[in-house]
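Annotated sample (chain length 114).
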Amino acid sequence: MAQVTVRVGGYSHPVACQDGQERHLTNMAAEVDKRIGALKAMGMQFGETRMLLLAALQLADETGDLQTEVAALKAGGAVAAPIAAAPEPDHALAARLNRIADAIEAIAATLEDA
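Output written by the structure step:
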């Protein structure tokens, strides 16, 4: 098992992976770091956990879109316009993700109090 230290959002994280997967892991971490950089460029100044959550929500949203497109292709249907490789900062999406993150934090606080 290989051990790689990746840098995301200005923080170093040691991560284990299968031998030979180091480059893939580094590339994935670079994608998350790019997302965090875009969020920071939009003026968001949150802690590491919140920034990672927002980046994960962006990636999950894109994954859902890609899964829908793959299902449409498998069914022989048409696919919407291709997804851009590096999206421009979307302030509306950032605001929506902030509201989602606030809701998640409120739920977590309620669970901690219970």
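Annotation: The CA atoms of residues 40 and 46 lie 9 Å apart.
Annotation: Residues 2-113 form one domain.
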